[in-house]
Structure formats: structure tokens, C-alpha cells
Design goal:
Strands 4-3-2-5-6-13 form a 6-stranded parallel sheet, sandwiched between helices. A 6-stranded parallel sheet has the order 7-12-11-8-9-10. Helix content is 30%, strand content 23%. The protein has helices spanning 17-27, 59-69, 84-97, 123-128, 146-149, 185-195, 212-220, 241-252, and strands spanning 2-4, 8-13, 32-38, 52-54, 74-77, 101-104, 117-120, 136-139, 156-161, 175-178, 199-203, 224-227, 237-238, 256-258. The protein is elongated and about 70 Å long. Helix 2 (59-69) packs across helix 3. The protein is α/β, with parallel strands linked by helices. The termini are close together. The chain has 8 helices and 14 strands. Bound molecules: NADP nicotinamide-adenine-dinucleotide phosphate (NAP). NADP nicotinamide-adenine-dinucleotide phosphate is lined by residues 13-16, 37-39, 41, 56-59, 62-63, 79-80, 82-86, 89, 142, 203.
Length: 260
Amino acid sequence: MKRAKQPVRILLLGGTGEANALARRIAGDGRFAPTLSLAGRTSNPVTPDLPLRIGGFGGVQGLRDYIVEHQIGVVIDATHPFAAVISANAIAACKLAAVPLIALERPPWQPETGDLWHSFATVEEAIDALPKMPRRIFSGLGRLSLDALARAPQHHYIIRVIDRIAKPDALPHATIVAARGPFRADDDLLLFATLGIDIVLAKNSGGDAAYSKIAAARRRGIPVMMIARPHSPPRTMFATVDEVWADIEHHHAPPTERGV
Ligand code: NAP
């Protein structure tokens, strides 16, 4: 009779819809024991029903120690493509702990016919390139980019964030819209028309959940100031949940052993 060995412990670095989907997939298979890790940026994260840890590890060494102490067999980096620090830390920590690392990174969006994209390497570059005259600008850049918006405080920013925040003093004409994705293009089109949006600020996040603003901008014929992704370091990488799952099953499932 074949008997399964102990489940392989998987540390899943999350903060994305794909990480949640992958966590559910892994948790449904008794050969694996996943723990989902979040940075703790949002107050009420929507997460699957499985072991969860929240908060930073304390840099590379802290992450390495966590991996060793919890006998993690595989680390999956399914963080957002703009979360460059944790991705670099995961590479270094897995090397120190001699544990395999797999990354899930959705492909970036590509411009389509009708898109009016202007590409920038950083948020700051994009803000500095905005017109000098006040405009009505939709920001899908998230809460962490508020300081950058203050480089051009004359604009009326409509800032979409997950958790409601107070209007920053440095942005006297801002409107905060607290909403949790995924969003629909029809709804964003209506929002842009109602608020008279004439420029969209976006990170090239890829995926479906945040694409609505890009599709709405195309349909409305307004420009998108698109922030390119940070450098993606070399590592074993897949573009979809299905691909990661196939690799996990194929390469990281515990071997079965002969019993009585
Ligand atoms: P970051 O700059 O790469 O990471 C900053 C620090 O946050 C890391 O050094 C680490 O702290 C902690 N951290 C990040 N992700 C973590 C995780 N999954 N579990 C435990 N600790 C984590 O990340 P960020 O851009 O601030 O993003 C934070 C989280 O939000 C990420 O998990 C990401 O998936 C999610 N997110 C980010 C964006 C974005 O645009 N950046 C958008 C949507 C979602 P220690 O060094 O102490 O370990």
C-alpha cells in the first residue's frame, strides 16, 4: 500500500488575487500545507480560509529564519509586480535557506488600438510630465504614491484606494474614492464621464482586476500615463496560476512511500 509522506509546507507571499486563487488551489490538495503571507497594507484583506500570517519578516534574514523555523519546503512569490523589495528579499532568503523559489508574475498589459499611452519609468517622472494647468486626473496608483502626486498639487486628483484615507493636506483639490476591485470597464467609463476625468495615472500591473480604468480610458479617448514595471529579477517564473500549480505538482509534491 502506498502512504503519503508529510505534506510539503509552502510559504505563499501574497497580496494579489492570483495569490489567493493559488492558495485555494494548493489548500485543496492534502499533499501540501500552504501559509499565505501578507504585508498588512489593507485593513480587511479578503483571503481564502487557510493559515495566514500578516506583517513583514524583518528583511532577508528574518524571511530566511521564518523559512527554516517553519520547515518551509517551497516559497512562492505571488506578490504584485511592483512589490520589488519583497521579491528581491525572497530570492536572497531562499538562497540562504537552500529552499526552492517559484514566482508567479502576470504579464504586463500591452497597448491596443485606440490606447493613448505615455510610458514612464517612475511615478515621479509621470507626475513631472503632467500639464502645468490644473486637470482632472484619475489616480489608480494606490496609497503609496500620494507623496509623488504632491509634486503637482494644482491638479484635481480622483484617488482610488482600498481603505478610506483622509484627504492629504498636500493635495488640496483631491477626492478620495475608497473601493475594492475587481472593477468593471463600464463602471469606470461612467465614473470618468461623471467626474470629467481627462488623464489617467496607472501602473502597468497586468491582469484583469485593475484593467477597467485602461479600457475605460481607451473608450473615452483620454491619455494614460503608464508607469512601467520595476526590473523583474531572474528566477523560476510562471505567468498563470495553472502553470504554477502544474510545476508544484510535478516538481514539489512529496514522494509516496511503500507501507504495509
Ligand atoms: P515591497 O515594497 O516589495 O515590500 C516592502 C516590505 O513589505 C518588504 O520588505 C516586507 O517587509 C513587506 N512585505 C511585502 N510583501 C509582503 C508579504 N506578502 N508578506 C510579508 N511581508 C511583505 O512591497 P509593497 O510594494 O509595499 O507591497 C506590499 C504588498 O502589497 C505586497 O505583498 C504586494 O503583493 C501588495 N500589493 C502591492 C502593490 C503595489 O503597487 N506595490 C499593489 C497591490 C498589492 P520585511 O522586509 O520586513 O519582510
